[in-house]
Amino acid sequence: MSDQPITYASAGVDVHAGDRAVELMKDSVRRAQRPEVLGGLGGFAGMFDASALQGMRRPVLATSTDGVGTKVAIAQAMDKHDTIGQDLVGMVVDDIVVSGAEPLFMTDYIACGRVVPERIAAIVSGIARGCELAGVALVGGETAEHPGLLGEDEYDVAGAATGVVEHDLILGPHRVERGDVVMALPSSGLHSNGYSLVRRVMAAAGWDWDRHVDELGRTLGEECLEPTRIYSRPLLELARADVGLHALSHVTGGGLAANLARVLPAGSLATVERVWTPPAIFSLVQELGRVPRADLEQTLNMGVGFVAVVAPDGVARAQEILAGHGLEAWVVGAVGDPATAEQHDEPVVQGAKGVDGGAVQMLGDYPA
Questions:
Q1: Distance (Å, rounded) from C-alpha 91 to C-alpha 106?
Q2: Judging by DSSP bridges, how do beta strands 102-112 and 47-48 pair with one another?
Q3: Which helix (H) or strand (E) covers residue 27, if one does?
Q4: Is 18 helix (H, G, I), strand (E, B) or coil?
Q5: Domain PurM-like N-terminal: where (predicted)?
Q6: What does each C-alpha distance from 77 to 86, 100, 151, 199, 214 come to in angstroms?
Q7: DSSP 252-295
Q8: Which residue of 86, 150, 236, 296 is most buried, as measured by CB atoms within 10 A?
């Protein structure tokens, strides 16, 4: 039996620090709103006025949840926490956009070993910034202090979002046709996948995160913390335009080929030419770790954050729309007949993440 009374605070949970964190994040959350949001910060549940859905013919809700993986370890090592939230938003809302749905609202969850109000507020500021970029309302969240489970300076983040799309406007394999063109949209860097590989390579090379790398033009840590690009606004405009957009693929874990295969119909093959030069961070990881190209491509995005499958006569207009958002999209291939795979001595990727979809074959070499 303890000689002293045991309180929640002595067990390692500081309720008052949590309250201070909420006060510090209020301004950030206030900027990440939409007119449909009801109530304010601090309620038991976020509320969103869905009356606008009454004007839709057959509204279909789309939902997604995700985290940012071991990228948080780099944020913690550098003590820089104001960008990781944008990564979280990008990983969640852009999965929703793949179906053609407009993301509406999002909630977040932060688990930490110790609540440091300024650190939690910095994380949430990044989440709010991402929601602003995506046009999504941040309607609520939770910060949980887990002493003894996580170290004092450790944390992890997760989030979930909901969107809506008209049933007859859903994008996906049922729309894709042979002859469709595959377009690539540039990533802003590593995004939020493959950091276990990146961290292992850098540790083996003995490189610190504050090391300046000439090829990158900044420190290694700054490069690795570059926030995930958020594509929802430009892609929603693309989906609403008359460009023959048939499918979208978010290039996350598994790489370009595996994620593109998920949105192609069974019995189809998309060939993708390696016509672009991946940013320097990708070749750096490959060279330092002597990582085989196949392993690199199924782990990292290689400079392509999204893929659009478009009817041939809509490519020029699609590129024009995306350019208006600062995205230089380029043609990398087409959807064709699986029989053509026999003509190339390259592996064919299909059946990714349990989806019985199409197949993708990467061809050629990246330009130097």
A1: 12
A2: unpaired
A3: helix 15-31
A4: helix
A5: 60-165
A6: 18, 37, 13, 11, 21
A7: -TTHHHHHHHTTS-TT-EEEEE--S---HHHHHHHHHHT--HHH
A8: 86
Contact between residue 274 and residue 363 where contact means Cβ atoms under 8 Å apart: yes
Best CA proximity match to 73, nearest among 188, 189, 200: 200
- In eight-state DSSP terms, residue 300 is S
- What count of other Cβ atoms lies within 10 Å of the Cβ of residue 260? 31
Percent of the chain as helix, strand, coil, to the nearest 5: 35, 25, 40
* Cβ burial 5-14 (10 Å sphere, 16+ → b, else e): eeeeeeeebb
Backbone angles phi, psi at 215, to 5 degrees: -60, -25
The backbone region for 79, taken as left when phi is positive above 0, alpha when psi lies in -120 to 50, beta otherwise, is left
Q: What values do phi and psi take at 14, rounded to 5?
A: -105, 95
Choose among 237, 262, 252, 353: nearest CA to 306.
252
pLDDT score for 13? 64
- Angstrom distance (rounded) from CA 95 to CA 306: 10
Q: Are 89 and 127 in contact (CB under 8 A)?
A: yes
Phi, psi of 346 (to 5 degrees): -135, 145
How does pLDDT run across 228-266, given as a tens digit for each residue? Answer: 999 999 999 999 999 999 999 999 999 999 999 999 999
User: How many whole angstroms separate alpha carbon 226 and alpha carbon 217?
Assistant: 13
Identity of the residue numbered 355: V
Does residue 14 come out as left (phi exceeding 0), alpha (psi in the -120 to 50 range) or beta?
A: beta
Structure tokens given for 59: 């509204």
Please list the residues that pair with 336 across neighbouring strands: 269
Q: How far apart are CA 17 and CA 7, in angstroms?
A: 15
Residues 138 and 29: beta-carbon distance below 8 Å = yes
pTM of the model: 0.92
Q: Which amino acid is at 257?
A: A
pLDDT tops 70 at residue 8 = no
Contact 124, 23 (CB under 8 A): no
The Cα 337–Cα 348 span in angstroms is: 13
